[in-house]
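FAQ: What does the model actually see?

It sees only this:
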Amino acid sequence: MFIFIKIYIKTYGCNINNFESENLFNNIKYYKILQTKIFFLSNLIFLNSCIIRKNSQIKILKELKKWFFIKTKKKLIIILTGCMVDFENFNKLKKLKIDIIINDISIFYLNKFLFFFFKYKKKIFLIKKKKYFNLKYNNKFILIMKGCNHNCTYCVIPQSKGREIYFSYKYIINSLIKKIKFKLQDITLLGQNVNSYNFGIINFNDLIYNISKIKNYNRINFFSSNLFDFNNDFYYIYKNIKKISSHIHLPIQSGSNYILRQMNRKYKVVKYLKFIKNIKKIKFTTFSTDIILGFPNEKFYDFDFSLKIIKKINFIDIYYFLYSKRKNTISYCFKENEIKIKKFKFFIFNNNIKSNLLIFINKILKAYVIGYINNNIFIGKLDNLKLVFFEYYSYKIIGNFIFVKIIKIFKNIFLGIYK
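And it is asked to produce this:
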């Protein structure tokens, strides 16, 4: 057994995967742990995988090949978890030189798995399918739901994560109250469809209302949302609860109604535009989105609708990808576009994206002060998750909310003046 474990963590995928990787140390107790950013200096490598797109799956296999080579030269434990474990053929995974293969439910027993492995030197494979839900949280995030019920034709989440499971709002509120000792004022709610939360008679709007009553929290973020899970009550909540972040990540996926039907997205572009218009009437709000390019049966006029939608809405961030064909999805049987046409669309779309960050110039925005550099230069995090740098004279400001006037923007970095 190692005197202490040098652990290297590699994460692919969404905010939920990043959150689960950050939460890893809560599941490894009784061991002396040192985290390293250099994988060949580690004793234990933890890989949190993602299979939403084929490209990420290829990257994971390339990483594993490097680690398998290092394993021939030194003692090394490789742990694989994440979506790939639930989605990929398990017999194929077992043939790889991976020591411990567990899914995100089994990860709560990681401490016991390591003890068993050190003692008996035998590989461990466990994928629990029991539908229970452990509350996960760290100092900044809290996972309130998992899974998806919407069955979009291109998505593997329903197959890999299962149907939606919600955690009791009482436990969520109690855990947030326990976190007050960390003196945090910023909390982010996470879930594949976070705004579809519905535990008994408590829905997403009710949950936000209850969280807003905790005095110590002054900003509530949430990721990621679906348009068809918002109801009219959300407008009232958004207007009257000032603690809700003024930034919403709202995937549209395509600007064409025909492609949205093919994707089974259950809304039209007009409804999307109407929601954004209603939200902007309430207060200054920014949006980010996801777009899939080259979806099966997408014609150039469908692609043109996607170009028009990004020009019509001033998204501050657009996450766009080429369509990736995945097994066990409905769109797997659809006729795909030629790869040359898909790449051409990607090239055109990339050249049409313009930065909309200039809308922030001379705006006074709320920022959560997270630290400082030197010479009284402090760092704040805005509602849209961008960083702002400003001058101040006292370190007591760290951990508090302040207002900053934006005077200059360089790429994704904001310069501001304390107000």
